């Protein structure tokens, strides 16, 4: 048995891993890769796509992002705290139905772009739509890797963000007929420990405290809502997340 075989969890039909390296190393062995970035990318994807919109992931917000938005006939998300729609779930709560938006994100978007290159299905999940995503995966009967996108330290290294592990566990809990890897089982255990008080736990995480300190407490509250959306955002050929409804 090779080292690659061990770390890629290939003996299991439901897997869990962290960040962009997790996508390329573990996700490559699955039919579906689920991206989880609770605060805030995949929560934003759920909100926009549930309204019939399309979310185009993009790694950075720069001049190339503006050109990309023009190419796609989409608006470019503003910086958080700007006057327009942004990577803030609260800012998107009134977005018009059918809006096409380019949403730069260094974590969730980056993981999405890498997952797309694997040629499998890519789904965006958060706490809001975790049950719907699980139901859809059960219906397909497909193997899956759930990726907790995490955050970055200032030196660029991955910072595991516990809220993403909680969100991943919420999806994995809904897959009782899958064979969960030990990593996936632990993600479920973390979720089950946290689900009785999600708002307080998300608010107390490093990422949550950072957002609250910057005035975005509402974003944390929105992200903590559990199983309220039946949207399953799937990355399409246009490289956009659009949703199907799956109760």
Automatic annotation (TrEMBL):
Keywords: Hydrolase, Magnesium. Pfam families: 2-ph_phosp. The keyword Repeat does not apply. Its EC number is 3.1.3.71. Its cofactor is Mg(2+). It catalyses: (2R)-O-phospho-3-sulfolactate + H2O = (2R)-3-sulfolactate + phosphate. SUPFAM superfamilies: ComB-like (SSF142823). Belongs to the ComB family. This is Probable 2-phosphosulfolactate phosphatase. It comes from Brevibacillus brevis (Bacillus brevis).
């Amino acid at each position: 048995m090779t080292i690659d075989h061990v770390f890629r969890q290939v003996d299991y039909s439901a897997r869990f891993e962290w960040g962009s390296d997790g996508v390329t190393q573990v996700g490559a062995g699955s039919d579906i890769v689920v991206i989880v970035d609770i605060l805030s990318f995949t929560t934003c994807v759920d909100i926009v796509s549930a309204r019939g919109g399309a979310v185009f992931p993009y790694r950075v917000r720069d001049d190339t992002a503006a050109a990309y938005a023009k190419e796609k006939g989409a608006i470019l998300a503003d910086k958080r705290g700007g006057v327009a729609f942004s990577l803030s779930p609260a800012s998107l709560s009134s977005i018009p139905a059918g809006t096409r938006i380019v949403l730069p994100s260094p974590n969730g978007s980056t993981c999405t772009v890498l997952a797309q290159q694997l040629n499998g299905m890519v789904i965006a999940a958060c706490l809001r739509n975790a049950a719907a995503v699980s139901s859809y995966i059960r219906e397909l009967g497909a193997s899956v890797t759930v990726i907790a996108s995490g955050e970055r330290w200032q030196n660029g290294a991955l910072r595991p963000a516990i809220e993403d592990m909680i969100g991943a566990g919420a999806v994995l809990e809904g897959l009782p007929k899958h064979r969960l890897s030990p990593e996936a089982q632990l993600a479920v255990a973390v979720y089950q420990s946290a689900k009785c008080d999600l708002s307080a736990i998300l608010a107390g995480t490093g990422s949550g405290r950072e957002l609250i300190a910057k005035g975005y407490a509402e974003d944390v509250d929105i992200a903590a809502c559990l199983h309220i959306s039946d949207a399953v955002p799937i990355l399409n050929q246009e490289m956009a997340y659009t949703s199907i409804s799956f109760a």
